[in-house]
Design goal:
Blueprint: E1 15-18, H1 24-35, E2 39-44, H2 51-55, E3 61-65, H3 71-85, E4 91-93, H4 111-121
Pfam families: adh_short (PF00106)
InterPro entries: NAD(P)-bd_dom_sf, SDR_fam
Family: Belongs to the short-chain dehydrogenases/reductases (SDR) family.
Length: 134
């Protein structure tokens, strides 16, 4: 039987960095890249969610807690992942994003919620422009 890693998608030993990897779409992205033989650096902000359980027995997954709105933390994310897998990031998946836990329309959002949402979802992509090209 052929495993997904043998299907020839060209991802075997490719270093992938996924932001917002702790759950939902991000976690699914991580799992798919691992199935295809990639090395994955998985970024999360607060809680790693199911990532530690997924990491058990897998050498190809590195977890990294980082605030994507902090340029220094993003640079450290790239360098630590590169050191761990002994190769630079080759594929970048910018998947992070937040929406307030309270079900609130954008027009009803208080200013602090609005600023935090913009900081993470919009401004939080900017530090990735200053990191090594992938």
């Amino acid at each position: 039987m052929i495993t997904p890693g043998e299907l020839g998608f060209g991802l075997n030993r490719v270093h992938v960095l996924v932001t917002g990897a702790a759950g939902g779409i991000g976690l699914e992205i991580v799992q798919e890249f691992l199935k295809h033989g990639a090395y994955v650096t998985a970024q999360y902000h607060t809680s790693p969610g199911s990532l530690p359980e997924l990491q058990k027995g897998i050498d190809d997954l590195e977890l990294f807690k980082a605030d994507v709105t902090d340029e220094h933390a993003v640079k450290k994310l790239f360098s630590r992942g590169g050191e761990f897998f002994e190769q630079e990031v080759q594929v970048l998946i910018v998947n992070h994003g937040i929406f307030p836990e309270q079900d609130v329309n954008l027009v009803d959002m208080d200013l602090e919620q609005w600023k935090r949402t913009l900081d993470v979802n919009l401004t939080g992509t900017r530090p990735f422009d200053t990191c090594p090209p992938v």
